[in-house]
Design goal:
Strand order of the largest sheet: 3-9-8-4-5
Shape: globular
Mean pLDDT: 88
Helix content: 25-40%
Bound molecules: zinc ion
Structural class: alpha/beta
Number of strands: 9
Low-confidence stretches: none
Radius of gyration: 18 Å
Number of helices: 8
Distance between the termini: 31 Å
CATH architecture: 3-Layer(aba) Sandwich
Largest sheet: 5 strands, parallel
CATH topology: Rossmann fold
C-alpha cells in the first residue's frame, strides 16, 4: 500500500465511523469494537509452554530445565488462542485496518495473563520494533500501543518505563508470515535489531511485547541481543501465537 492508499483508508474509516456507528465485533451492540462483556468471554490460556521446545508445560511459560541454558528468553506468556474467533478478528482489524482504539481491550488480555501468572515486575517494557519504512506505511506500531497501555496499567498509580527507541529494527525484513520454514524465519531476522543505549539494558529485567508471535523467531532474536547487552532476564508476552506447538 502506498501513502495515498494509506491515507485514503484512514479517511474512509473515519467517514465510516461518523456515519455508521461502531458495533462490537462479538455481540453487535453499538458501542466499542470489543465491549467489556465480550472481552471477558475470551478464554485465556490456562497452560503455558517452554518457548524453546514448545513441548514442556512450565508453570509460567519459562524455558524448561533442558532448554534453559540455550534460550536467551527466560519465558514467554501467551495470553489467549488465535483460534478464538474474536481474537483473530480483533487482531486483524487492529493491525490491518489501523484501528488504534482496539489497543486498549487487546492490552487488557495481556495485562490479565501477566497478573494471572504473577511474573516478577519488569524494569523496562519494550515493544518489538517496526522498521521505519513499515511504521510509515502502518502509521503506528501496534506493539508500542500495547506496551504503553501495559506500562500504565500494570501497577496501580505507577507508570513503568517503556520506550520504543531503545531497541530498534535496523534492517528491513520480510514479514515472518510470508516465510515457509523455521530456518528462513530465523535467518530473516538475524541481526535485524540493534540497541541504542546498552547502559539502559544492563542488569535490567525486560519484558518484550508483541501482538502475535508466528514462530517466535523475532522475539528470540530480540532476546538474544538484549542478553548480549547484559540484560538480567528477558521475558515476553503476546496476545496469541500462530501454529502453536509446531516448529
Ligand atoms: Zn460485545
Ligand atoms: Zn524446553
Amino acid at each position: 500500500m502506498d501513502n495515498a492508499t494509506f491515507y485514503f483508508q484512514k479517511i474512509k474509516s473515519f467517514i465510516l465511523d461518523v456515519f455508521f456507528p461502531i458495533h462490537c465485533l462479538g455481540c453487535q451492540t453499538e458501542s466499542y469494537w470489543l465491549c467489556d462483556s465480550c472481552l471477558k468471554k475470551i478464554k485465556l490460556r490456562n497452560q503455558q509452554f517452554c518457548p524453546h521446545c514448545e513441548k514442556i508445560i512450565t508453570p509460567d511459560g519459562r524455558a524448561c530445565f533442558t532448554c534453559k541454558n540455550k534460550s536467551p528468553l527466560t519465558g514467554l506468556l501467551v495470553a489467549t488462542s488465535y483460534q478464538e474467533p474474536l481474537v483473530s478478528k480483533a487482531v486483524h482489524l487492529y493491525k490491518y485496518r489501523f484501528l488504534e482504539t482496539l489497543a486498549k481491550p487487546l492490552s487488557q488480555l495481556i495485562l490479565k495473563i501477566l497478573q494471572d501468572y504473577d511474573l516478577p515486575l519488569p524494569d523496562l517494557i519494550l515493544p518489538i520494533p517496526l522498521h521505519p519504512r513499515r511504521l510509515r506505511w502502518r502509521g503506528f506500531n501496534q506493539a508500542s500501543h500495547l506496551a504503553e497501555n501495559l506500562a500504565s496499567n500494570l501497577l496501580p498509580e505507577f507508570v513503568l518505563e517503556t520506550t520504543a527507541e531503545l531497541l530498534i529494527r535496523q534492517r528491513y525484513t520480510l514479514p515472518q508470515m510470508s516465510l515457509k520454514n523455521h530456518t528462513q524465519r530465523h535467518q530473516n531476522v538475524r541481526d535485524a535489531f540493534t540497541i541504542t543505549n546498552q547502559a539502559k539494558i544492563k542488569n535490567k529485567r525486560i519484558l518484550l511485547v508483541d501482538d502475535i508471535a508466528t514462530t517466535g523467531s523475532t522475539i528470540f532474536e530480540c532476546a538474544r541481543i538484549l542478553k548480549e547487552a547484559d540484560a538480567k532476564e528477558v521475558w515476553a508476552v503476546v496476545i496469541a501465537k500462530r501454529d502453536y506447538g509446531k516448529k
